[in-house]
Structures are given as structure tokens and as C-alpha cells.
């Protein structure tokens, strides 16, 4: 029981780990997933058939040898779009960034995530010349200095869920439910291109201090920039992280995060400021703040993580957007975990809509999502999971959409 509980708690607390790679230790992780479901229904969509989208295999490998670390991932799909009405697209066998539930993401601006696709591969190289110093380059350097709104698992994993309740990165009216705020705690990222590819260096003194710097992919000589981060862990229960993305540019992102950690309770708090010059097609600066608490109750095998977040636009015409959600895992029988995620989000509206008869009934919209799942930990290396996800979206025009998906995930880790 304690091992299974630790497994669940470890996944929930991944976002609090300040220096983990994509894989936390040498080994191999293979994930085979499949999914079926129904695309969004609503205005303009007549396709209300159940779809089966084939298989996706994700192989991740990490190797630590002497002063070097190499890690990589490859997504390989046997992809199809098989509808319940009998129509069937031929299988495509290919390296792909499309997930098994892609078909739920490309209609009516819907989807479980801000971005409906994933990297088709990543490769990272790290050199550790002296103790505490890491020099890295790669396509997914996942270096973070503190907590942020969680998505818990990779997009293909059974614990994946919509980020920030499903709010989108846009101004009101620019997406179905707008209000997503970007948190720059992953200091190898570049917000404009949504990538973690970078060349970077960091120094860590035990688990007490981290200082890092990176040049992310997408930087040009005409618009040079770099990112920097700092983390301090002065006492056992307190960890503070600060990062700034876009030094040398007028547009940048400031992140601060504080974690209070105790035996069976962890509190994560965070603040983000996205500085943007307002221009045609853009929506100016934005602020975001939020918190998440993780409770572990070993005697009954429960891990619970509620969270809440708020987004504010500098433009006074745009209203507050916010979300709240929670993840729970209940371990029982020594090898079973019953879990669920649920959230609700309310998007930002434009106050000027009330001035026109055509837009007077528009609002910020909202998203409701619920995702129960069940995992059987077969042995130390293998686990099998099943999930069901239902989502309802009401967009800013008060048009209603529903979708659902279900699937299976087999994970091998050695």
C-alpha cells in the first residue's frame, strides 16, 4: 500500500521537483496508448460518430554514464480514424506528434489541452564537468525552478488533464474560453514559439541553491534574449524560485513560486507576469496567480491536490478569468489506484460587448471537465490504466459543445 501511495504522490508532486529531467533516473519507459471517443458537437459540426484513432507508442530512454547524461523520446503511431458508421481511413505508420485523442482537439477550438499535439521526439545531452554544474543542450530541456499550474502527466499519460481548467491563450473573443496565463518557471522555454529546446547551464549546490541561464531556440541576432533563474531552499519546509524569460527584450515573463513542504502537506503558490506590448492582433500584458495544496493521508491511501488560479489582463475592458480543479488518488488492495480529475473554468469577457445588440449576450464562456481513471500496478515494471473524460464547453458566444473520450494506457518502466 505504501509503495502504491508513494507512486501516486510522486506523480502529483512532480511539478514541485526543482531539477528533474524528463525521466528522473537511468532507465527505459515505454507507453502504449489507444483512445476512442466523440468529437465536439455543436454549431457547424455534424460528425457525431464515435472515432477510434489507432495506437501510439512512446519510448523514452535515459542513460547516465560518467559525466554525461543522454535522454530521448520517440512517438511512433499506427494511426487511423475509424468511425462507428463504418468509414475507415487507412493506417499510417509514422513518427508523429499527434496523440490518440487528436480528433477531439481540432473541431470548434476544443480539446483537453492548450496545445493538442506533443513533440514527436526529443533528444537532450548533458555534461557534468564538476559536481553541481550541468551544461545542457537539447530539444526538451525540462529545467524548472518551482511549481506552476499542473498538467500532472504527459499528454499521452492516464493522468493528463486540461491545463488551467481549459482556458485558452488569447484575448476575449479570440478563443472559445480565453484567460490562460503562461508561467515561465521552465527557464529553458521560449513563450512565443512554445518550445523547450535550448542550450543552457545551471549550478546546483546540494538541494540548497540553483542558478541557471539559457538561450532558447528561436532567438535571433536582431532580437537577442536569454533566460535566467534562481532557486533557494533555505530550510526543509521552504523553497523559493524566481525566473525571467526574455532578458534584453521589452516583452518578457516574470515568474515567482514558493513551496511550503511538510510531511503530509505541500502548499504551492505562484505568480506570473507576462509583459506584452499591445499591438494589432495582440492583447497586451497579463498577470496570473494561483495555488495548489497536496494532502497525503497514508492510513487510508489518499492523495488529494486541489488548485485554483486567476488571470488578469492589463486592458481594463477585459474581465477576470479563473479556474478551480482537483486531483484525487485512492490506493487500495496493494496494487490498485482509483483516481479522478475535475475542473471548472470561467473565461474573460470584453465589457464592450454590452454596447452592441449583436454581442450583448456574449460572456466569457466556461469549461467543465471530469476525468476518472483506474490503474492496476501489475508489478514493479508494468501498469495498466483506463480512463474516461467528459468535457462541456460554453464559448464566449454562449454556444454549447460536448465531447468525451475513453482509452487505455499500458506503461512499462525499468
Describe this structure in words.
With 414 residues, the chain is mainly beta. It is 3% helix and 49% strand. The chain has an 18-stranded antiparallel beta barrel. β3 (68-83) and β4 (92-95) form a beta hairpin. It starts with a helix and ends with a strand. Mean pLDDT is 85; it is low at 11-19 and 106-114.
Poorly predicted runs are 11-19, 106-114
Strand content: over 45%
* Largest pleated sheet: 18 strands, antiparallel, barrel
Mean pLDDT: 85
Structural descriptors:
1 helix, globular, 49% strand, 18-stranded antiparallel barrel, mainly beta, 414 residues
In short:
With 414 residues, the chain is mainly β.
List the helices and strands and how they pair.
Blueprint: H1 2-12, E1 27-41, E2 51-65, E3 68-83, E4 92-95, E5 121-127, E6 133-138, E7 198-205, E8 209-216, E9 226-235, E10 238-247, E11 253-261, E12 265-274, E13 286-297, E14 302-313, E15 321-332, E16 336-346, E17 366-377, E18 382-394, E19 400-413
Antiparallel strand pairs: 1-2, 1-19, 2-3, 3-4, 3-5, 5-6, 6-7, 7-8, 8-9, 9-10, 10-11, 11-12, 12-13, 13-14, 14-15, 15-16, 16-17, 17-18, 18-19
Amino acid at each position: 500500500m505504501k509503495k502504491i501511495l508513494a507512486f501516486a504522490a510522486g506523480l502529483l508532486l512532480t511539478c514541485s521537483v526543482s531539477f528533474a529531467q524528463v525521466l528522473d533516473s537511468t532507465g527505459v519507459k515505454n507507453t502504449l496508448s489507444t483512445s476512442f471517443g466523440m468529437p465536439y458537437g455543436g454549431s457547424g459540426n455534424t460528425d457525431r460518430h464515435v472515432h477510434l484513432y489507432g495506437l501510439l507508442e512512446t519510448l523514452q530512454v535515459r542513460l547516465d554514464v560518467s559525466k554525461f547524461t543522454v535522454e530521448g523520446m520517440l512517438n511512433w503511431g499506427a494511426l487511423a480514424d475509424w468511425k462507428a458508421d463504418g468509414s475507415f481511413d487507412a493506417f499510417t505508420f509514422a513518427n508523429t506528434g499527434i496523440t490518440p485523442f487528436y480528433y477531439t482537439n481540432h473541431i470548434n477550438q476544443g480539446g483537453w489541452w492548450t496545445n493538442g499535439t506533443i513533440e514527436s521526439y526529443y533528444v537532450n545531452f548533458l555534461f557534468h564537468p564538476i559536481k553541481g554544474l550541468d551544461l545542457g543542450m537539447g530539444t526538451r530541456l525540462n529545467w524548472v525552478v518551482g511549481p506552476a499550474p499542473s498538467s500532472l502527466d504527459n499528454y499521452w499519460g492516464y493522468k493528463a488533464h486540461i491545463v488551467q481548467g481549459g482556458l485558452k491563450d488569447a484575448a476575449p473573443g479570440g478563443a472559445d474560453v480565453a484567460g490562460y496565463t503562461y508561467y515561465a518557471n521552465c527557464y529553458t522555454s521560449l513563450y512565443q514559439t512554445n518550445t523547450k529546446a535550448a542550450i543552457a547551464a545551471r549550478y546546483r549546490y546540494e538541494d540548497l541553491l540553483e542558478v541557471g541561464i539559457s538561450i532558447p531556440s528561436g532567438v535571433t541576432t536582431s532580437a537577442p534574449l536569454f533566460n535566467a533563474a534562481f532557486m533557494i531552499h533555505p530550510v526543509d519546509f521552504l523553497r523559493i524560485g524566481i525566473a525571467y524569460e526574455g532578458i534584453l527584450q521589452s516583452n518578457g515573463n516574470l515568474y515567482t513560486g514558493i513551496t511550503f513542504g511538510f510531511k503530509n502537506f505541500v502548499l504551492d503558490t505562484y505568480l506570473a507576469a507576462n509583459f506584452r506590448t499591445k499591438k494589432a492582433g495582440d492583447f497586451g500584458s497579463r498577470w496570473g496567480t494561483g495555488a495548489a495544496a497536496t494532502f497525503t493521508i497514508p492510513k487510508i491511501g489518499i492523495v488529494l491536490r486541489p488548485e485554483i488560479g486567476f488571470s488578469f489582463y492589463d486592458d481594463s475592458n477585459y474581465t477576470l478569468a479563473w479556474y478551480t480543479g482537483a486531483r484525487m488518488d485512492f490506493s487500495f488492495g496493494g496494487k490498485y489506484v482509483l483516481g479522478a480529475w475535475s475542473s471548472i473554468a470561467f473565461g474573460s469577457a470584453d465589457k464592450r460587448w454590452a454596447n452592441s445588440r449583436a454581442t450583448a449576450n456574449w460572456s466569457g464562456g466556461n469549461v467543465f471537465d471530469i476525468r476518472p481513471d483506474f490503474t492496476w500496478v501489475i508489478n514493479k515494471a508494468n501498469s495498466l490504466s483506463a480512463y474516461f473524460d467528459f468535457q462541456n464547453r460554453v464559448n464566449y458566444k454562449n454556444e454549447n459543445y460536448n465531447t468525451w473520450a475513453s482509452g487505455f494506457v499500458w506503461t512499462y518502466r525499468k
